[in-house]
Amino acid sequence: MVTIRNGNCAGQRQSEKLVRSCPVCGKPAAHGTRPFCSKRCADIDLYHWLGGAYAIPADNEADAGEQGADARAAPRVPEV
Q1: CATH number at residue 62
Q2: How much is the pLDDT for 50?
Q3: pTM score, whole prediction
């Protein structure tokens, strides 16, 4: 993240504008492709999501508990 400051004279109010950097290459983000610097970096990021490189962590204990509850609720088939 880059900070740009305007109005550095004494007595003037300083206004700060934060310019976020591209998450792929680190260059400043462009207005039309924000938060990326270009369409190319946006496509690279999409490829990573679709390819499974990015994942949201899951709580394995909660998943196991839900599967167990489903298995217990399933009807039993009588043995022949």
Answers
A1: 3.30.50.10
A2: 93
A3: 0.50
